[in-house]
Amino acid sequence: MLHVKYWTICVAVVLSLTAVASAETDGRFSGNPTVKMLSDGRNMELIDSFSYTDPKGQKWDVPAGTKTDGASIPRFLWVSYPPFTGKYRLAAVVHDHYCQLQSRTWKDTHKVFYDAMRTSGVPEKTAKVMYGAVYGFGPRWGTRSEQRAPAAERNPSPLAQTKVLRELEAWISRDNPSAEDIEKALDAGRVPK
Fold first, then answer.
1. Least C-beta-crowded within 10 Å: which of 67, 92, 124, 159?
2. pTM of this prediction?
3. Per residue in 62-76, pLDDT tens?
């Protein structure tokens, strides 16, 4: 009897730890997307629709026929994080579609990229670095969309973007800031050193 109670307690502990660990990844994908590469060798078209439901329960539909070029991932990240490879692929398609559509705020659109990456199993550090890059240098629209902190100018050089990315990676590795802390630091124009 003691042996059964011990294992029951172990299973309960593992389940509770799993629930805590997955709290940030409670989103889900629906559908089985298929894509085809277009003849230009750069763009893709979605053959089957799919959707992503974020951790807040908000649904992000991506219809069949959507064309994506991965351009919402800043070009300077393509060497380390190509737009159509890795576990972040579906997150990139959702993000790209809503960057084109601009039917939701740029902040919500960039945040869904982070949430969808985590749901897809992208490691937390990688997801935070990519989110920070998109938040800091990705497209913006709507009221006050052009306002950026002095250190995050509208069209920084690739060298300036790479410098911020390296600082961001170091900060995330060192302190593991939350997504909200990353937003605040980038809005203020300085990544903690």
1. 159
2. 0.78
3. 999 999 876 556 666
